[in-house]
Write a structure and sequence with these properties.
220 residues; alpha/beta; 6-stranded parallel β-sheet; two-stranded antiparallel ribbon; disordered N terminus
Amino acid sequence: MGNEDAAMDPDVRPPEGCRHVLQLYGSEQALVERVGSYLADEMNEGRHAVVIATPLHSAAFAREWQRRGIAAGDRSGPFTFMDADATLTKILVNGYPDERAFDESVGACIRGVAARSDVAGVSAYGEMAGALWKAKQFPSALRLEQVWNNLLKSVPVRLFCSYPIDVFGPDFDPELLAAVLSAHHDLMPFDSTQELSVAVVPEYADEILKRSREYYASAS
């Protein structure tokens, strides 16, 4: 099977026994607040955060954690940063995520953290798939979700992914929408229903709203 065939494999479903959630966002501030808050809560539970993001986002998350009382300036803190763009460069082969390269980079980092006796678990945040999606590399983004889910079969990680909401526009393929939703367990609350309705054509917005309501119901 070639890279493109693997990327389009319809079975991208997340495994049981872990948590893989999706965040759609329309503004940078909303992303920082949502991710910063989520990971702060995870770290307060004794979990270690592995953050695969752009340096700009990583710095913003660190400021949000400091605001919430977590000493983000201490390199021995309960978090590890990886540069999303640099990591993508390492794991892409002919434009598609290579599972071995991913495992040697991201997988090795996460397994190393998970093996530590001083952490209660690993909570990862990634925006590499969102970057691929924004660049309209849809098969590569779905392949990366599949590779992540394969890792989750062997390491009990809570994974949080983010996608810029404006990529879900009128030229978006409904089958790709179904695939990206099915690669995650839950859809996290987004900026606002109004923003969603502007950014997404109606039939897609209905499905996303349905998934978000299901998340609220399960969390209540």
